[in-house]
Specification:
Length: about 170
């Protein structure tokens, strides 16, 4: 997404500012959600649900200001695809994933979809890889067991922000 900001500065300044606001919003919400999830294993609706509206308005506004209809479609498809993927995982194995993670997936899918649908795959793989490595480290350090619950939201956020930063 950083590379996209550089392109928009010259081509569509209004889109640049909308996308910059969306990025800053994501960083603030990601930091807040990660801390809450680590402490309480919860992703509160009072933060996640309004993020759909804020991210949607900012990202779709950037699409409109840059006359990029393809990006607008990818935002919607990204949100739906990632939400459905996480919902299926939750449906198959409810103890393995919280519904807060499912709701967060839709928000992250909007951001990842804006840059391209391949980001969905990379961010999801990164989240599961990082979460798995963390679990292995907990077991190896004897600070947890194979049945220990770990907050997955921070790994989802880290994977998404990493993909958005790298591009």
């Amino acid at each position: 997404m950083i590379w996209r900001l550089g392109n928009l500065w010259d081509q569509a300044p209004a889109a640049f500012w909308l996308l910059l606001a969306a990025c800053l919003y994501l960083l603030v919400v990601a930091a807040r959600l990660a801390v809450i999830d680590i402490r309480s294993h919860l992703l509160p609706n009072r933060i996640v649900l309004p993020s759909y509206a804020v991210a949607g308005v900012l990202l779709l506004g950037a699409c409109w200001a840059s006359a990029d209809g393809g990006a607008a479609l990818r935002v919607a498809v990204g949100a739906a695809a990632l939400w459905v993927f996480y919902f299926v995982i939750r449906f198959i194995h409810p103890p393995g994933l919280g519904y807060g993670d499912v709701k967060l997936a839709g928000v992250l899918g909007m951001y990842l979809g804006y840059t391209g649908l391949s980001g969905l795959l990379w961010a999801t793989m990164a989240a599961f890889l990082l979460g798995g490595l963390w679990g292995v480290l907990l077991v190896a350090a004897r600070r947890g067991s194979l049945k220990s619950a770990i907050p997955f939201g921070p790994f989802m956020l880290l994977g998404a922000v990493g993909v958005l930063a790298v591009g």
